[in-house]
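Entry for the shared binder. Reason: the reviewer on the internal report wants the predicted structure included alongside the sequence.
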Amino acid sequence: MSLWTAQDAAAATAGQVASDWTATGVSIDTRTLQPGDLFVALKDVRDGHDFVAAALEKEAAAALVSRIPDGVSAARLLIVEDVLDGLVALGQAGRQRTRARVAAITGSVGKTSTKEMLRAALAGQGKCHAAEASYNNHWGVPLTLARMPADTDFAIIEIGMSNPGEIAPLSKLARPHVVMVTTVAAAHLAAFDSLAGIATEKASIMDGVAPDGVAILNADIETTDILQQHATTCGLRQVLFGEEGRDWTLRDVRLSDDITIISATGSGEDYLFKLNVSGRHFAMNAVGVLAMVDALGADPVTASLDIANWRPPPGRGTREIIVTDGAKQGETLDLMDDAFNANPTSLAAALEVVAAAVPVDGVGRIVKGRRVAILGDMLELGPDEVQMHRDMAANTHLHALQLIHCAGPLMHHLWQALPDDKRGVWAENAGDLAAKVSQLVDAGDVVLVKGSKGSKVSLVVDAIRKLGHRRPRQD
């Protein structure tokens, strides 16, 4: 199906084209480019113009460029003054031409997971469009909009930030009808003076919403007044979600190894539904998702059934079984891969999930199954980062674990604060832990691996997977 004709793309970007072509997609990476894509030659670590020839050889419909690369004909080029500005213009045009109801999501924790929950919840009620990954920054949001088919019914836009002033322009580009702030937590504090500063930045997602739009806000966080005041200033209808007396109220959560059972009320209805993953934090965001569905004009009852189809994205709490010895019955360990991001709030949520998990006895070297955490540094927490790491030793759920291994200079402070009977191995970096992972975990264990992406604790996840072969938990 046609996404952009040469004429439409040129009109949107004020660019120059030398021939007719039709693009069926938009790509910024030749490694994942599909035939028929419009290749956007962004400049990042490498200049995308260096890959235009390769993109055209892979049957890209055309390339969005600011100059003609050496050895490339202008016939299949869309030439603009600046490539990123051209992508933004293309995204703006993509947004303008659709009648889709648009939702935008931000928050310190849970943006991508909530986006995917909402996608699953809406999938049966119309044509739904959302990015396939965490495309939530100054190029990711316009790329998502540029990829949006004109006949989309529901669009879901994830908006993130790492510095002040980044969210509002992206919200104004997306022009959402409904926005949601999942939570405000100690993340990116290195770029902000306080939690209130983060809340103010998150609140700016409302700046692009029409005056008759809706803001779905977490009423249980300490900075909710900042969010609610901003919604009032923007003239938005506020829908609050939380645990007591809210418009959408989380009444009860029951966790097991694989399932979260949720009781909630909202919009005059009682809801009892499940997620096929364990986590109280997921439950809270799921209630917010039903509030979003309602505000978008879709059916939250149907959504509460369809949300069970959602699974966490890789690195954000996905669970899998690692078969360590296929010749022996039960020689497996349960791996929770949460290695994409970390702050005190998300770590506490992950520890609660592990604390509720049930290890398996009678297998492995140790025979007694354990709850094990392997933790990498939580980054960008600002001047109190050392204390924040040390304070995690007092977390109630952490005390239900039998063993905690740590990697990195910041996690050394948590490791030192642990009780002697729970203190495992500390290493200067995640690579050192990965090299000795066979000594850190055993069959029968439930193993959480969590840390900020920059801590490279994903190396430990990869090493655990190499201990055997993977199979999904539902098997």
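Summary line for the report: Residues 280-295 form the longest helix (16 residues).
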